[in-house]
Every structure is written in structure tokens, then in C-alpha cells.
Recover the amino acids of this structure.
């Protein structure tokens, strides 16, 4: 997945916001809460990071091209980073990013969800 494809996909999710921070990472949030981070150098992906369920974390963390997201996972959070081939296909990445978005949106306060037009969040 290219940087442009990543940003286009994340930007298609309702009420998603984008900022470039942390030394050039493309950071995506909903309601001010992180749901995906992507980083590229010289057009090559260095990492696409997303939140997963506890079960998905157990399955994905040892797959080739994937690893626990160093900063987040070291603090007990279930975040995975796609960093190398074979990793995940673009469709699989989109699915996991969508699930990450859904989990983060579902955890927002009801008032925030309603203000963002997200009154019926999915829970994972």
C-alpha cells in the first residue's frame, strides 16, 4: 500500500482526521483518538500500525512482516505494525484499519460520537 492509498483509504472513513507528526508519520484519528499510523521513506513503507482485538493480536504478532507496535504494545496495548513483506495484502490492511477505526470510534463518549455523526458504532 502506498502512502497515497493509505491516506485516501483512511480519509474515506467518517469523521477521520489526518496530521503529519512524529518525524513524518501520517497519523489518522477519529474524535481525537488514534486509529492508524503510516510511515514511508523514499516511497517504501516503513510501517503501518493499527489497533487490533486481543485475539487478532495473538494471531498476527508472530506472522512474517508483522510485529507488535513497539511503543504501543510495550505499554500493554494491542497494536500491530505491518513493516515488511509478506505482511498483509492491501485488502487485509484495509480490513484491519477499518476494524481499528471501529474499535476506537466505539470507545468514544456517546456525546462525541453523536457530534461526529457516529451514533451507531460497531463494537469488536
Amino acid at each position: 500500500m502506498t502512502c497515497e492509498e493509505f491516506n485516501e483509504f483512511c480519509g474515506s472513513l467518517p469523521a477521520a482526521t489526518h496530521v503529519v507528526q512524529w518525524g513524518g508519520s501520517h497519523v489518522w484519528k477519529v474524535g481525537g483518538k488514534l486509529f492508524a499510523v503510516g510511515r514511508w521513506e523514499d516511497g517504501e513503507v516503513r510501517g503501518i500500525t493499527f489497533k487490533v482485538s486481543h485475539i487478532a493480536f495473538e494471531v498476527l504478532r508472530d506472522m512474517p512482516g508483522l510485529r507488535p507496535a513497539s511503543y504501543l504494545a510495550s505499554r500493554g496495548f494491542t497494536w500491530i505494525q505491518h513493516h515488511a513483506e509478506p505482511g498483509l495484502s492491501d485488502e487485509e490492511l484495509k480490513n484491519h484499519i477499518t476494524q481499528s477505526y471501529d474499535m476506537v470510534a466505539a470507545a468514544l463518549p456517546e456525546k462525541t460520537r453523536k457530534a461526529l455523526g457516529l451514533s451507531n458504532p460497531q463494537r469488536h
User: Anything to note?
Assistant: The longest strand covers residues 33-41.
